[in-house]
Design a protein that fits this description.
Blueprint lengths: L3 E4 L2 H7 L6 H16 L5 E5 H7 L4 H11 L4 E2 L3 H13 L6 H12 L4 E3 L12 H10 L6 E3 L10
Parallel strand pairs: 1-2, 1-4, 2-3, 4-5
Helix pairs in contact: 1-2, 1-4, 5-6, 5-7
Length: 158
């Protein structure tokens, strides 16, 4: 059985984005494309209704490209348990304006994902808050998935 990974919105966004002029962002886009082409098959990947909603925003042509990347991935719903965990995350850690970020974490945790793949290092993959996020998930009876960027989730032999 393959490990499971929740694919957060930034991943398909980086896959299809026009190359950034910022070297760091350009490197992250390249790493995302490399992970997707060489390592995605090592995982059972999932998205959520939140990911789909977020990817529909903005330029219609780019939204279509983003959605095409995930069209075959199973979609996890925002269940009552995930809503409750998201509310707890918002109460304790995640700022109110980042409600979707709390939902991504909650959906991944409630659905027992092994990994949450993201480039969102502000509210999700943040070393300052990750221990608090893990504790919050545990307090609600769930294990927090390992939160990682594509660079962190490359196989050891790459």
């Amino acid at each position: 059985m393959k490990p499971t990974v929740y694919v957060e919105t930034t991943i398909p966004s980086y896959l299809v984005a026009r190359p950034s002029k910022l070297p760091r962002l350009q490197a992250d886009q390249s790493t995302t494309r490399q992970w997707w082409s060489q390592h995605a098959g090592d995982f059972d990947m999932f998205v959520s209704d939140i990911v789909i909603r977020e990817m529909r925003r903005g330029d219609a042509a780019m939204a279509e490209e983003r959605l095409a990347k995930i069209t075959r991935l199973p979609v996890l719903a925002l269940s009552g348990a995930a809503e409750n965990l998201a509310a707890l995350l918002l109460e304790r850690i995640i700022p109110p304006q980042a409600i979707d970020d709390a939902a991504h974490i909650a959906i991944a945790a409630v659905n027992r994902m092994d990994f949450l793949l993201t480039w969102n290092c502000r509210h999700i993959n943040n070393r300052y808050t990750i221990r608090r996020i893990e504790k919050c998930c545990a307090d609600a009876g769930f294990a927090c998935p390992v939160v990682a960027t594509p660079a962190e989730l490359m196989s050891i032999d790459s």
